[in-house]
Amino acid sequence: MIHYKELGLVNTRELFKKAMQGGYAIPAFNFNNLEQLQAIIVASVETKSPVILQVSKGARQYANQILLQYMAQGAVEVAKQMGCAIPIVLHLDHGDSFDLVKSCIGTGFSSVMIDGSHLPYEENIKLTRQVVDFSHRYAVSVEGELGVLAGVEDDVSSEQSHYTKPEEVEDFVKRTGVDSLAISIGTSHGAYKFKVKPGESPPPLRFDILDEVERRISGFPIVLHGASSIPQKIVDEINKYGGKLEDTAGVSEDQLRRAAKSGVCKINIDSDGRLAVTGAIRKVFYEKPGEFDPRKYLGPARDALIELYKHKIINVLGSNGKA
Ligand SMILES: [Zn+2]
Questions:
Q1: What sign results for the dihedral spanned by CA atoms 59, 139, 16, 150?
Q2: Beta-strand (E) ranges in 173-219?
Q3: What is the pLDDT of residues 11-40, one digit of tens each?
Q4: Cα gap 17→265, rounded to integer Å
Q5: How far is the CA of 165 from the centre of ligand 1 (A)?
Q6: According to a count of CB atoms within 10 Å of the terminal CB, is the N or C end of the chain lower?
Q7: What residues contact 67, with CB distance under 8 A and at least 6 apart?
Q8: Which backbone phi and psi does 44 adopt, to 5 degrees?
Q9: Which residues make beta-bridge pairs with 156?
């Protein structure tokens, strides 16, 4: 077993406290490969932002758990070498069992999510409590979830969204002992969040639910999943260079900015990064069909990611300069 402190990582506790006081949110970017990790570190260090490296169960299987552990450690060292030792969290996204959490903590994760949101309420509490009791022994922070997001992301999928019931949050937080809570207020997983025609806007987030949750658990860190904005510019680029994405829309960045200023301390962004990578690679393949050096298309993909992450950090989350 390796403890995350040996890798130079931190848990989310201090980061969320500061984010709450400062009215900003910490970015949680998903990664499965080298270029994504490089982009996250470069963007975060250059903007002096704390960052949460997020790994799903599927990503862990894809990338190999041992390799991931050393990649996270490498990220810490690279940040130092770049002249700004930003706080870095290694977080399990949508943990679905106690055994998975245990295994992640044994390979250097400093934070875990246990997602019992699809379970009946009492079972969600039981599973979450079990994970909290174990994780806190190792000073690993735990994110729970109440309410279900619509959409598809790796192993998580639901056709319909079920908004968080504000009357449950106090009881859930108290009885589970979680450090943060993911809620459902209308964000959604995946690239196809809202089926809208070009020019139409997606339904707004339910800020009334967020306000009521915050009133009931004032000062407690809230997490938003499925918070990609699905930039039309990138969707158009993908389709221009041979892709075939359908009409789609994401969560507007104005609304995310508003959420980041409130009790929302962590905002998850995955799909926007996937789209940026796809657009950049398609462009190279379209313009230079003779290209066969992966660095010549993964490099531009990495550059596109750096630009995207910096934009999110500075213009949406407001976590720049907070490292
Ligand atoms: Zn999620």
A1: positive
A2: 180-183, 188-189
A3: 999 999 999 999 999 999 999 999 999 999
A4: 8
A5: 18
A6: N
A7: none
A8: -70, -40
A9: 153
**Measured between alpha carbons, how far is 266 from 197 in angstroms, rounded to an integer?**
30
55/67 Cα distance (integer angstroms): 12
Please indicate whether residue 272 is annotated as part of the active site: no
Residue 198 has pLDDT above 70, yes or no: no
Length of the chain counted residue by residue:
323
Choose the catalytic residue: 93, 115, 154, 270: 93
Mean pLDDT to the nearest integer, 176-199: 88
Whether the per-residue pLDDT at 152 is higher than 90: the answer is no
Helix (H, G, I), strand (E, B) or coil at 252: coil
What spacing in Å lies between the alpha carbon of 3 and ligand 1's midpoint?
25
Centre of ligand 1 from the C-alpha of residue 194, in Å: 16
Give the Å distance between the CA of 259 and the centre of ligand 1.
16
pLDDT mean over 243-259: 93
179 within 8 A of 128, measured Cβ to Cβ: no
Residues 26 and 256 sit within 8 Å (Cβ to Cβ): no
Parallel/antiparallel/unpaired status of strands 188-189 and 180-183: unpaired
Confidence band for 126, pLDDT divided at 50, 70 and 90: very high
Quote the mean pLDDT of the chain. 95
Residues 6+ apart with CB under 8 A from 212: 166
CA of 226 to the centre of ligand 1 (A): 6
Give the pLDDT score at 181: 98
Pairing of strands 88-95, 264-269: unpaired
Mean pLDDT is lowest, of 108-122, 198-212, 285-299, for 198-212
Which pair of tokens denotes residue 318?
């407001």
94 CA → ligand 1 middle, Å: 6
Q: What are the C-alpha distances in Å from 228 to residues 276, 287, 295, 308?
A: 12, 28, 26, 11
Whole-model pTM over 0.70: yes
Quote the tokens at residue 37. Answer: 């990790």
pLDDT attached to residue 191: 85
How many angstroms is it from 110 CA to the middle of ligand 1? Answer: 18
